[in-house]
Design goal:
six-stranded antiparallel β-sheet, 19 helices
Length: 825
């Protein structure tokens, strides 16, 4: 039986004296080094040793830049010998970041240049003598590798100044328009010593399908590696799934087998909101006929039975981009996922589950793993399997031209094959995507002229990667990129075809422009806002809480980001005065922008088959497009997303120049009811009303026409529409907030202590638009159960606050539009 020993203790980290020594490096780093944690990286070890400041605070990022330019060596000691009589000893690393030389007892076992691969080195001879044997993993700065490859192959266009497209490493560690520049190095995933005899499982590829008669099929392709002692042996491989077992024998000289298991009448795995998520253990064992049932090696994962297809059929609107799971078309209520911490080894299983549970609670059913990050750990995909969260997985190419020559091409192919095989057991994974924005960049960003015929990645996206997916995992669809229209003959960001990214809105246009198009699938769109107040206070300090303070601007990585925030506020509110009003209004504007897009696009299902918000999460405290900030606090956008991504949604939408009520029903049952639509005067009560009945089929959208007597406002500066049905509400204001005339907001608050914290009830005496309780202003640990709420005169809302004892003034934590406008010029 294979014996596995984790190598997770006894490590030290030392600055390599043969490489570049930055002047900031302490002498101790060269001499004895510091204790190192594996998995981890140089930054986390230096932080633990107190040798660098927290790069997420203030402008400390600049003070630790030297770490990414240095060379680092990890060292520990192995115990040599045969280890229980095994024939072979392998040193296994699930992830090395990135350019490394692995040495045992001074003998070089191998070299690496790819963060996104696992490595296995034969250490049998190096350990044969016994005793204590030193193990070293020496890392060269990723900058040095990238700059050397760039010098050899020539420059390539890049949306950012750093050379991330010349090394197979997490691109965003070189900085992004939401992330810090922290170029890491280290043993970032598990390391272990494996001892084995005769044979081991080198690769297991389970292809899971469902036949038309409901039979679940698992075709498992296995590859084995044999020792010299195992070459003449007959091996027995068995696969067991859901109580059904099948066996195959590998004769001497054979290193591969295919084993099929059929499970009748399987329960299907469904996305959340469409059904349950049954999972089954898939167990593969390898042995011989004469080992009396003892396994030489084993492999175990969970699988779910489902079919997935991508519908790209041409129609009157262009060509579709609709995911179908078990034959059912799914509207993707999606979010983009970035690495949850730039120091990625700090993200553990519990953190993945917290973040993905937040996504599911917000109504999300699809998570796109973006191409500038990493192929996430098994913990991420396991959590998605259990929660019914569909996963769209990018291959790791983003916002740059990538050379197709060596030494990169071989690495790209090996990386792709390994990760397709590693992730294919997960039923949540439904789509492989070739790249993020590179096909678009070649077309629109001036790359063609700059490249002058040099390679830029097209061969990866249109040839290599689809071929790898077809060969290794034919059960899943592949799409060449996002955005991508499905054909080189069409513009890659044509909204009538394939996937679309909307970045003119935010960069140059107001969010009202979202209503001008109906894309087939909106794969990226979003609006910025700062993080929560307590997050900013921790990261920047009290004296830096100003929109234009040096530290605040350092935590704003987007080009002219604060200028775009200001230009986004101007048409709606004017210019806020003071940090508190700015903070509230920018967060409100983010929620309003996203609502404008999603309400419009969901009302056009099935022409539009999905929206994928940029972005769910942050990797540090930063002003960004995220719904959950870098300290795991939920911004107002998060709570608005819960409304927008609910199974049922009401919206007042313009169709053919007239207002209509959109009744969006993504529930599995029809929606029958009566709506109440009123025209109200902010100062004088109800001006008109209409109560239409409606019936909308399951997974459908209905439009209710509204009479002109209701929709034609007498005075748009005072009147507005309210639509209600089954506890849901939609609002329509015809003019900007700064042009709307209403009485100064008046509220009464009551605080009642509870076992979990306190309930804060707010009663409105006037129209109160977008009331928000910023719970973290009451206490850094406080969290409210809801976000923005508009109250009509006489209405109340109760915020349930946890993590707070109910003491202190509530008024400073309560904001609404009129309160913020009173400070606006």
């Amino acid at each position: 039986m294979k014996a596995s020993t984790p190598l997770d203790h006894g490590w030290t980290l030392r600055l390599d004296p043969r490489g570049h020594r930055p002047e900031q490096a302490a002498d101790a780093l060269v001499d004895e080094g510091v204790p190192a944690r594996v998995p981890g990286c140089a930054h986390t070890d230096l932080l633990a040793a107190g040798l660098i400041p927290d790069p997420y605070l203030g402008r400390n990022e600049e003070e630790v830049a030297w770490v990414g330019r240095a060379d680092w060596t990890y060292r520990t000691t192995l115990t040599g010998g045969s280890g229980g009589g095994h024939e072979r000893a392998d040193l296994v690393f699930d992830g090395l970041d990135t350019v490394a030389e692995v040495r045992i007892g001074g003998r070089v076992l191998g070299r690496t240049r790819n963060m996104h691969r696992a490595y296995r080195f034969d250490a049998t001879q190096a350990l044969a003598a016994g005793g204590d044997v030193p193990l070293e993993v020496a890392f060269t700065s990723a900058y040095e590798e990238a700059e050397a490859v760039r010098a050899r192959l020539g420059p390539r266009p890049n949306a950012y100044p750093e050379p991330f497209n010349f090394v197979r490493k997490m691109a965003s560690s070189f900085g992004w328009d939401w992330g810090p520049t922290l170029v890491t190095a280290g043993i970032w995933r598990q390391a272990r010593l494996e001892r084995w005899s005769l044979a081991r499982l080198a690769e297991v590829r389970p292809e899971v399908t469902v036949a038309e008669d409901g039979t679940g099929r698992v075709r498992v392709r296995i590859a084995v590696e044999r020792t010299a002692g195992g070459t003449a042996r007959t091996l027995r491989a068995s696969v067991r799934v859901a109580g059904v077992e099948a066996t195959a024998r590998l004769q001497p000289g054979s290193d591969a087998a295919t084993i099929c298991v059929e499970v009748p009448d399987v329960a299907l795995w469904w996305p959340r909101g469409y059904g349950e998520q049954p999972l089954h253990d898939c167990e593969v064992t390898l042995g011989t006929d004469d080992t009396e049932g003892a396994a030489l090696d084993s492999w175990e994962r969970r699988v779910g039975f489902r079919t997935v297809a991508l519908d790209t059929a041409e129609d009157a609107e262009g060509s579709a981009f609709t995911l179908r799971v078990n034959g059912q078309p799914v509207f993707a209520r999606g979010v983009n996922w970035i690495p949850d911490d730039t120091l990625v080894s700090r993200v553990d299983a519990a953190r993945y589950r917290r973040r993905l549970a937040q996504a599911a609670k917000a109504g999300v059913n699809l998570v796109r793993v973006w191409g500038g990050g990493i192929y996430e750990s098994e913990d991420f995909y396991d959590a998605c399997d259990e929660a019914g969260l569909l996963v769209w997985q990018d291959f790791l190419f983003a916002c740059a031209a990538y050379p197709e020559e060596e030494p990169l091409r071989t690495e790209v192919e090996a990386e792709a094959r390994e990760n397709v095989v590693r992730l294919m057991p997960h039923p949540s994974l439904v789509l492989w995507n070739g790249n993020n924005e590179n096909l678009w960049g070649f077309r629109d960003w001036g790359w063609a002229e700059e490249l002058n015929g040099a390679s830029w990645g097209e061969g990866y996206y249109l040839d290599l990667l689809p071929r790898v997916v077809a060969e290794a995992d034919p059960t899943r669809p592949y799409w060449a990129g996002s955005p991508w229209s499905g054909s080189p003959e069409r513009h890659p960001n044509d909204p009538r075809h394939g996937t679309t990214h909307s970045w003119e809105v935010w960069n140059r246009l107001d969010y009202a422009a979202y209503r001008e198009d109906v894309p087939r699938f909106m794969a990226e769109f979003g609006w910025q806002a700062p993080p929560a107040y307590a997050t900013l206070r921790r990261a920047l300090g009290e004296n830096q809480l100003a929109p234009d303070s040096p530290d605040m601007l350092h935590h704003q990585k987007a080009a002219d980001g604060n200028g775009k925030l200001a230009r986004g506020l101007a048409p709606h509110f004017g210019a806020p005065v003071g940090f508190d009003a700015w903070h509230y209004l920018t967060q409100l504007n983010q929620a309003r922008a996203v609502a404008t897009g999603i309400e419009h696009w969901r009302a056009h299902w099935p022409v539009c088959a999905g929206t994928v918000l940029w972005q769910l999460n942050d990797c540090w405290p930063v002003t960004s497009w995220a719904a959950i900030d870098g300290d795991e606090r939920e911004k107002p956008l998060y709570h608005e997303l819960r409304r927008l991504y609910a199974d049922r949604l009401l919206g007042l939408t313009v169709r053919d120049g007239r207002l209509a009520l959109a009744v969006v029903n993504d529930a599995p049952t029809p929606w029958e009811g009566r709506a109440r639509v009123r025209r109200l005067d902010a100062k004088g009560g109800e001006a008109a009303a209409y109560e239409p009945e409606f019936t909308v089929a399951e997974r459908a959208v209905g439009l209710v026409e509204l009479p002109a007597a209701l929709t034609e406002l007498g005075d748009p500066a005072r009147e507005f529409l309210v639509a209600e049905a089954d506890g849901l509400r939609a609002l329509h204001f015809a003019v900007a907030d700064k042009e709307f005339v209403s009485p100064a907001g008046e509220v009464r608050t009551e605080v009642v202590e509870t076992a979990e914290g306190a309930d804060v009830t707010v009663t409105a005496h006037t129209l109160v638009r977008d009331l928000l309780l910023q719970a973290d202003r009451l206490a850094p640990t406080a969290k409210a159960d809801r976000g923005l709420v508009t109250l009509l005169p006489g209405e109340s809302v109760t915020y349930r606050v946890s993590g707070w004892d109910g003491t202190g003034a509530v008024d400073a934590a309560l904001w609404w539009v009129d309160k913020a406008r009173s400070a606006a010029g």
